[in-house]
Design goal:
Elements (H helix, E strand, L loop, with lengths): L1 E4 L20 E9 L20 E3 L8 E6 L5 E8 L7 E6 H7 L6 E9 L13 E8 L2 H12 L5 E8 L2 E10 L4 H10 L5 E4 L1
Parallel strand pairs: 2-6, 3-5
Antiparallel strand pairs: 1-11, 2-7, 3-6, 4-5, 4-7, 8-10, 8-11, 9-10
């Protein structure tokens, strides 16, 4: 799965509160972010850093690991792929890309207390041209909340679905709109303009 942040409009939709107790594969601490000053530079994985991709730096997790990051201050969650090493500031546990920081509402403050949950079984598609494109507008631990958003969107959008994601911490329900590669950016801007915290998901 490759996640790319398209836009973020704060306020209308937030992820439901997730459990806060620690467990295997769970880490809590301070997140920061890095952006334009590193744009185009090579990362520790030898990828070129793109501030608009949903990626992050971690000191010890294997490169390529997918992590669900939850901002404990506003309960927003996003999945990022570890492709770099850091942060190198004491007391911080993850350095997010600009795109991920926007989704989580961290850009203005610069840092936030977060929970990291290592996800297993996530893979990037072998051929991105064959991937399905979704616009995700929310992820909820309460199924009824997800379907309430779906009903709201059904009147104006086609192919709105609720997908179930099972993790070690529980089951979450993601509200998504299916779209094509050529329409994804425009649809994401439209939904962001309506106040949804939008992520473009390719899988």
């Amino acid at each position: 799965m490759v996640l790319i942040a398209a836009a973020l409009a704060l306020g209308a939709v937030a992820c439901s509160r997730l459990p806060r107790s620690p467990g295997p594969g769970i880490e809590t601490g301070i997140a920061s972010w890095y952006g334009q000053e590193f744009q185009g530079r090579p990362t520790s994985s030898r990828e070129i850093y793109d501030m608009n991709d949903m990626t992050a730096a971690h000191r010890t997790l294997p490169l390529g690991t997918y992590v669900m990051v939850t901002n404990l201050g506003n309960d927003r969650s996003a999945v990022v792929r570890i492709n770099d090493r850091g942060p190198f500031v004491r007391g911080r546990i993850i350095d997010l890309s600009y795109a991920a920081a926007r989704v989580l509402g961290i850009v203005g403050a610069g840092t936030a207390r977060v929970r990291l949950e290592t996800l297993h079984g996530f893979k990037a598609p072998d051929d991105p041209r064959r991937s399905t494109v979704w616009i995700q507008v929310g992820a909820f631990s309460v199924q009824e909340n997800a379907y309430a958003i779906k009903r709201r969107l059904d009147s104006a959008y086609r192919d709105v679905v609720v997908s179930r994601l099972k993790t070690a911490r529980g089951v979450y329900f993601r509200v998504r709109v299916r779209t094509g590669e050529g329409e994804a950016q425009g649809l994401a801007r439209r939904l962001a303009g309506e106040g949804y915290p939008v992520i473009i998901v390719r899988e």
